[in-house]
């Protein structure tokens, strides 16, 4: 699906639910995508991208950033503490802060490096054992912990269970954010981004609908 069509669908949904035009930003998820597909989207003028793995991003984005100024890079996959320094030097936004040890590492490195990416907390809205993220009941306490460390948490992020209605999870994330004074919501992917817009997403993460299906071979 062309990039322009995705953007139009986001704008149409904003209009339908009475949100301000442009209040939902598109993160093009470029993980495991061939370089030529990523370059094609960059050449169309898009500059906001999401990657799952620090190593993969480190292998392609420094060079692409030289060619295409103004890129905003989001880490949307789990972050190991031993990769935190590299992630903080590479990414503009880390969407997957999800445990005290990682928060403490980021706070320490922010002091050392003199800068910190924008930070989102990942919430495991479906309380799935195999999925990363803070449990909904623990989010308020974790946010307080992050603030005590001197970290500014700008947003919350979630990945709903594949077999449940995503709108319920988007609504839950929005409720947690509102109660904690959090402005940004990263939610919604290729199959459900319009429902996320309807629930107040400020970022939607769309990959295969823009780039085509990924080739994991």
Plain-language structure description:
The protein has 217 residues and is of the alpha/beta class. It has one domain (3-209): Alanine racemase (TIM Barrel). 43% of the residues lie in helices and 17% in strands. The protein has an eight-stranded parallel sheet. It is globular. The protein starts with a helix and ends in a 6-residue tail after the last helix.
Identify the notable features of this structure and list them briefly.
single chain; globular; TIM Barrel; 217 residues; alpha/beta; eight-stranded parallel sheet; 9 helices
> Which architecture name does CATH use?
Alpha-Beta Barrel
* Strands in their spatial order, largest beta sheet: 7-6-5-4-3-2-1-8
**How many DSSP H or I helices?**
9
Enumerate the spans where pLDDT stays under 50 for 5 or more consecutive residues: none
The Rg value, from CA coordinates, equals 17 Å
The CATH homologous superfamily is named: Alanine racemase
Helix/strand/pairing category: alpha/beta
Terminal CA distance reads 23 Å
CATH structural fold name = TIM Barrel
Classify the oligomer.
single chain
- Total strands: 8
Largest sheet: number of strands, sense, barrel closure: 8 strands, parallel
Q: How much β-strand is present in the residues?
A: 15-25%
Number of domains: 1
What is the approximate shape? globular
């Amino acid at each position: 699906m062309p990039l322009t069509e995705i953007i139009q669908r986001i704008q149409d949904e904003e209009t339908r639910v009475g949100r301000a035009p442009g209040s939902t930003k598109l993160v093009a998820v470029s993980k495991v995508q061939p370089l030529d597909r990523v370059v094609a989207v960059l050449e169309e003028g898009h500059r906001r991208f999401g990657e799952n793995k620090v190593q993969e991003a480190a292998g392609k984005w420094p060079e692409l950033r030289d060619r295409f100024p103004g890129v905003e890079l989001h880490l949307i996959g789990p972050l190991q503490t031993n990769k935190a320094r590299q992630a903080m030097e590479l990414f503009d936004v880390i969407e997957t802060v999800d445990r005290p040890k990682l928060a403490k590492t980021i706070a320490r490195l922010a002091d050392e490096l003199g800068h910190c990416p924008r930070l989102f907390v990942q919430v495991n809205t479906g309380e799935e054992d195999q999925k990363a993220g803070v449990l909904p009941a623990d989010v308020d306490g974790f946010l307080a912990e992050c603030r005590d460390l001197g970290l500014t948490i700008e947003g919350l992020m979630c990945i709903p269970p594949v077999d449940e209605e995503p709108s319920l999870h988007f609504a839950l994330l929005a409720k947690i954010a509102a109660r904690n004074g959090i402005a940004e919501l990263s939610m919604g992917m290729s199959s459900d981004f319009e429902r996320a817009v309807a629930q107040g997403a400020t970022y939607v993460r769309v990959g295969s609908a823009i780039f085509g299906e990924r080739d994991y071979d």
